Batch of 3 targets.
Target 1
Amino acid sequence: MDLELKGKRALITGSSMGIGEEIARTLAAEGVIVTIHGRNAERVKRITQSIHDAGGKAVPLIADLEPSGAGWRVAQEARDKLGGVDILVNNAPGFAMPGWFTPPPEEWQRAYRINVVAAVELIHALVPAMREARFGRIIQISSNVSTRPLADLAAYGASKAAMNHLTASLALELADTGVTVNTVSPGLIQTESMQSNLFAMGVHRGWGTTWEQVKTHLVKEYFPTPQGRIGEPRDVARAVAFLASPLASYIHGAMLRVDGGSALAVP
């Protein structure tokens, strides 16, 4: 199926690794000119070159989204390099230390700064041109913990819940403008950072000493997933690619769960 994305321009935050990297690769394979954004210059350049080698088009964008005003600066650099932005994917994850009382308030603020404030800055900067063009896609990468609270992920989950709310209100604001606004809410997705963090937590909880042992407890007890497996970054990337396409023009204000059915397992 042709997603009719060839020639579109996308800014994907946090796209130098994990889910963001896979989103960038998937969109590039569909003919989208993508930004590879991240803080690690070597990784950003390597992924950019890899996409070029595969026949795609990508530009590097090295920046930290945590400082005040960073979203505005990233948006401007993306516009300068791409000539405009048709698709914005707010993916950069603002993680915090696990636990409720363990992370100090500053950690909560950091998660909110990246997951909410930077996203708002990017939206403010990029939406006017999208409205004028009568085409735009804003896709927020949230998380199942935004609607299923876990004490271990309190700061992260709270900031993602705020992201859900701003997405819904933005969808109302942009109705009938040609700009669609949607959320993709992943469940457990196996990325390098996720595996490292959850493996350490699982060992601490006594679930075993190997990733396979910990993974079994994750999908059966900690985060019950009816499909019985952890998802892959490409599962999220494919959902994003569809929502980014003109084929999804009547999908607006939606939350698409990519979670193996784990939302169904909530009592």
Target 2
Amino acid sequence: MTPTFLEIVDSFADLRDERPFESDEWIERERRKLWVDAPTINEPQGFKATLTAFLNCVAFNDEHGPILDFGGGSGYLYFMLRHYLYKRETAWHVVDKPGLAELGLAFAKENGPSNIQFFANLEATRNNVYRIVHSSTTLQYIDDAFGLLDELLALRPKYFLLTRAKISFNQTFIVAQKVVGKLTPCRFMKLEELRDFVCAKDYELLFQNRAEEDIASQIAATVGDHYRNVASMNFFFARRSGR
């Protein structure tokens, strides 16, 4: 496998961010996922299957309301899961860049009724009450990761879900990652730092497991062994009763 994590850097500021997630290459990648990949996948697998099972348990217990998917891109996850949700009328709200929202809206228009909405930032969602807030593979690309966690947890969802979070079992570190041929900083957060921060905000950990990605094999041979004890992980938190 060609390495995508290339070298350790001291901070986000020490690497010139080529902003891959705003590039034409990324938009085209997302377009292919929606129009080419999505129709060929029959049912959720890996972290998607875990997430679907959890959402259906919540819905079965009548804990219903919109789901906020921060960094949800073009809504690909929603389009993958919607036919497997216990309550298909569940509203799915995505916060991400306008270019990705345009893709999602176009796909929704071509593929029948949907309950997805897009927002350019968190502030635009303030009039909504979310029982579930979810984010996948987004936290690691935010310089002020704890600031973002504060903002998401300030929404006071009953459930806070992180999927495919980049985790280190030794220490937090930042690495230069190549995405669609462009460099960007990526943080691997020490497991205890992430877990303890969320739990300190009146949440408890319900469940954690490894996602299906083999992250260690994507680290360049020139990176020290100390940085290879890593994983992509899912975390499901619940707000403590009465809080």
Target 3
Amino acid sequence: MTCQDDLIDFREAIERLKKEKGRCKQQFKSEDSKFTNDANRS
């Protein structure tokens, strides 16, 4: 395992995290709008 390999793994991990974060944001947005709608209704 060379430093180069470590760097590539690190980059892949970061890309994976970015994708996860994007998915979480989408989830959060839909939860948030649901909450706002409920608040407006009451």
